[in-house]
Amino acid sequence: MAGVAAYDEYNSIDTWGSHVSLVSSAHFAAAVVRDKSGWSASELDLNGLADVDEVADLLRDVDPAAQVSLLFVEAVDAYLVVMRLDEGEDLRIFGSDSAFAEESRLGKLLLSDVESPALELELGEDGDDDEDKPAADPTADPVGDADLLADLGVSAHKLLQLCATDGLLPADITAEICQLIGCGDEVEELRES
């Protein structure tokens, strides 16, 4: 069988027979900003950016007067990165799995400066019965600031629990988070446009 090669700016896929290296390039980046009038959402193009500071600048430029700016980056139905700026400053980052930085140029761009692992998720921590919990992905290694959405209504525990739920796609996690913080309709409309 002849090999097929495809490349984009952030990832490469080399298929020789049935072997695939790295992850595909499919990603969705939604900026969600809150100002005095409420939440708004827009899609961002991350192509051509050189480092996380340029990503933060792009997020900041969506609405320089925003009180809170969030960026949800979903990649290959496997990874989620959440970035946050408060009044354009103090960048905080959370990644659902450190493997994203190892498997993708985009992941490396977004997570290369994130050194600290996210908090461990302990079973039974929230008082729910273990039987009611969905299966957790034992291979996920979340990194960064899991507490970055706590003041908006999504605790570190809830964020880690969502990311560890086997079968939930990054789009599902983003939708759940956005519903909890009050911008679910804006992000849903963005996806449908």
Please explain how this structure is put together.
The chain has 193 residues and is an alpha+beta fold. The protein has one domain. It is 27% helix and 27% strand. It contains 6 helices and 9 strands; from the N terminus they run βββββαβββααβααα. The strands form 2 sheets. It has a 6-stranded antiparallel β-sheet, sandwiched between helices. A 3-stranded antiparallel β-sheet has the order 1-2-3, with no helix packed on it. Helix 5 packs across helix 6. The longest helix has 12 residues. It starts with a strand and ends with a helix. The N terminus is likely disordered.
Which short descriptors sum up this protein?
alpha+beta, 27% helix, 27% strand
Write the layout of secondary structure elements.
Elements (H helix, E strand, L loop, with lengths): L3 E4 L4 E5 L2 E3 L5 E9 L2 E6 L8 H11 L5 E8 L3 E8 L2 E7 L3 H5 L1 H7 L31 E2 L11 H9 L5 H12 L2 H9 L1
Helix pairs in contact: 5-6
Summary of the model, kept short:
With 193 residues, this protein is α+β, with helices and mostly antiparallel strands.
Uncertain runs are 1-24, 123-135
What percent of residues adopt helix (DSSP H or I)? 25-40%
From the N-terminal CA to the C-terminal CA, the straight-line distance is 39 Å
Strand content: 25-35%
- How would the global form be characterised? globular
Taking all Cα atoms into account, the compactness measure Rg is: 17 Å
Structural domains: how many? 1
User: Roughly what is the average pLDDT, rounded to an integer?
Assistant: 82
> Biggest sheet: strands, sense, closure?
6 strands, antiparallel
- What is the string of helix and strand elements? EEEEEHEEEHHEHHH
Quickly give the structural class. Answer: alpha+beta
Number of strands: 9
Strand order of the largest sheet: 5-4-6-7-8-9
Please work out how many helical segments DSSP would assign.
6
